[in-house]
Amino acid sequence: VQAGHWTLENDGHSVVLSVGSGICHFHWGGPASNGSEHTLDSRRYPMEMHIVSMKSVHPNMSEALGDPTGLAVLGYFVDVAYADNVPFSHISQKLSAVAYKGQTVRIKPFPLMSLLPKHNMSQYYRYHGSLTTPPCSQAVVWTVYEVPIYISWTQLAQFTSQIFSTKEDAEQVTPLQNNFRHIHPTFGRVVSASRDARLLRGAAGRPACPPLAMGLFQTCLLGVSSRARTFV
Asked: How far out from the chain centre does Cα 204 lie?
């Protein structure tokens, strides 16, 4: 559990959870559309969660953005199931307090690990890319996990239908939807796959599914080619 005061904020572009020296934010689609920022095997998930950390040698974000590896972002697909994700309720139950741009609420610290697919953390992809929001600095080591986090339809709807990009007193309130960037070319970037990524074995010792055909992984300026696959 990161020490200090945690806050959840609607900044008009996303819902951002500030946790000590790092942040966690979300990208989603609409009530009938998916909105993850990456795609895997051409599949776009309903939502994506990013946990952002800064390299400790940098005193501030401005300096970190000048370092090609200044930031580490962990990306997690979010998919839906019928039951509520109880640890995720630490966030979803507070969303009504940040429905409008500029609103913030305190959150009691909890283990971030409780949100993650902790039994599948060895299945991931990694590449060097950029922020997906301005200033789109190419300063990020991306790690995108293959196995999604599962939340309920109700929890997803709290994001897609009950969060607004405008202030509460605006003449016309606008739902905050589709806050993801579209897929971009890779421009020669290489994506590495962990040894366990999509290499689950069947009973006979053979792969239970074909090798992963890499879909497009979106960054602000860069994507991912389906031909790029190395192992780490």
From this structure: 35
Give CA separation, 109 vs 3, 6, 209, in Å. 7, 6, 39
DSSP assignment of 36-101 equals: -SSEETTEEPSEEEEEEEE-TT-SSHHHHTTSTTSEEEEEEEEEEESS--TTTHHHHTTGGGG-ST
When the pLDDT of each residue in the chain is averaged and rounded to a whole number, the result is: 84
pLDDT tens digits for 19-28? 987 899 999 9
User: How far from 199 is each of 75, 118, 129, 196, 228, CA to CA, in Å?
Assistant: 20, 17, 25, 5, 16
DSSP letter (8 states) at residue 214: -
Active site positions, annotated: 13
- Superfamily designation of domain 6-180: Alpha carbonic anhydrase (3.10.200.10)
C-alpha neighbours within 13 Å on the C-beta side of residue 129:
31
Please report the pLDDT score of residue 231 as a whole number.
30
For residue 21, the SS3 value is: coil
Flag the least confident range among 37-46, 87-96, 144-153, 182-191. Answer: 182-191
Q: Would you say the pTM of this structure is higher than 0.90?
A: no
